[in-house]
Amino acid sequence: MADPARLIVLISGGGSNLQALIDAIAAGKLNAQIVLVVSNRKDAFGLQRAEKAGIPTLYFPLKPYRDANRDRTDYDADLAQALLPYRPDLIVMAGWMHIFSGHFLAHFPRRVINLHPALPGLFNGTHAIERAFAAFQQGEMTHSGCMVHYAIPEVDEGDVIVQAVVPFLPDDTLETFAARMHAAEHQIIVQAVHILTSQR
Ligand code: GRF
Q1: In the chain, what are the domain boundaries?
Q2: Atom 9 of ligand 1, residue of closest alpha carbon
Q3: Is 80 buried (19+), middle (13-18) or exposed (0-12) by CB count in 10 A?
Q4: What is the DSSP letter of 40?
Q5: What is the pTM of this model?
Q6: Residue nearest to ligand 1 atom 7, measured at CA
Q7: Quick one: 5-198 is in which CATH superfamily?
Q8: Contact (CB, 8 A) for 62 and 97
Q9: pLDDT tens for each residue of 106-151
Q10: Distance 182 CA to ligand 1 centre (A)
Q11: Ligand 1 atom nearest to CA at 115
């Protein structure tokens, strides 16, 4: 068995996808270890999930760069420099709200993956779950889905690693549909890491 893959997980919120990875590793389903959890928001509950699991955390906000009129690319470059010493084999954007430029991605070629709650090319960008549900309510769609893809500078583009269809049900509310979507995300985030770490 190869050494466990070194994962860095980037979050901005609740961290339920981070938790799915923590649980999969604890259950022996992934030959991986999470060496760092990074959040751009201090109050992200995902940081508490990491601390509870004994995983080091890093709070890396964008605000100081904005306040100093520094460019987003400075943030990206500085974050990359902060992560390089952890020697990540894979960086997982699990609900990370910032878009990365090449100033970050170039340091980790084909090693940054992103989870997005929509199928390729359909609802790129923010509020994908709400936008898909609105299309369903207009009778324009029977299903949506989620995917894990390689991160590239173009938002939510990049080669797809895993995707899953998430159907709408006739009596769905946004909440019931979002719950079904998140359950699917928790599965594909583990599947994607398994695919990329079992090839080692
Ligand atoms: C997920 O739906 C993810 O696809 C989206 O934000 C949510 C993150 O959820 N970008 P969590 O923080 O992992 O619970």
Answers
A1: 5-198
A2: 95
A3: middle
A4: S
A5: 0.95
A6: 95
A7: Formyl transferase, N-terminal domain (3.40.50.170)
A8: no
A9: 999 999 999 999 999 999 999 999 999 999 999 999 999 999 999 9
A10: 7
A11: 4
